Amino acid sequence: MCMSALGLLGLSSWMVPSLTMAKKPEAMEAIAKIIGSSTIRDGRVNLVIPPLVESGNLVVLKLSIESPMTANDYVKSVHVISEANPSPNMFTAYFTPRSGRAQLTTRVRLADSQRVWAIAQMSDGSFFRGYADTLVTLSACTEMI
Amino acid sequence: MSKTSRTGITMPAQAKKGAIIEIRAIVQHDMETGYRYTEDGKRIPRDIIRLFTCQYNGEEVFRADFYPGIGANPLIIFTTVAVASGTLVFKWAGDDGYEAVNQAQITVP
Q1: A109–B37: do the CB atoms touch at under 8 Å?
Q2: What is the pTM of this model?
Q3: Domain B7-106, what fold?
């Protein structure tokens, strides 16, 4: 669905030199590396980025993970992975029971229209994931200076 | 002397015990990705902040690893539980010996 929308709007990856682009398999590889031999479930992770972004240079990203955040049941970490940036890892945040809530806001770069994943590890070792799709009309990180 | 830059912290100066407070931490930094080229084709080397930590009265309560996917002048908004009066220390560390420290006081009556 995402790809056809891109085609219609003529916003495919022509702006971006393909050599520097991480492909989707690299993002999947990065996720596989995080979870190791564990399984991953959908849910609990809520990732919000604007569905349409004019400039990929500074995009507000909000993340919240459902958890009681008690000493025995909390979110340990969350890894944010890009499917289209030159490097799949965007950032990793480590929470503690003293975080109170597993939520954060930051500003990221998006090299192209893409899906962004958030992979959360709970204190019991289990993994949950969520994602957000976005359409970027002006790419980050390819401009000359 | 190692590299550093301006930082800013916004958080409440006072909170009830057990309340969840929001902290905004911003740092001035280009976050040069290492994926850009100059006009004559030379690659601009990567120069980013890699690590952010927050310690509350000496105990680490939040940490984040940054990669080039974080935008310039990294801003991070996160939460912590106000457990006691004291000092929160914020540290940023990155490429080329970059280091910055900021701190804020909180009163928990």
Answers
A1: no
A2: 0.87
A3: Immunoglobulin-like (2.60.40)
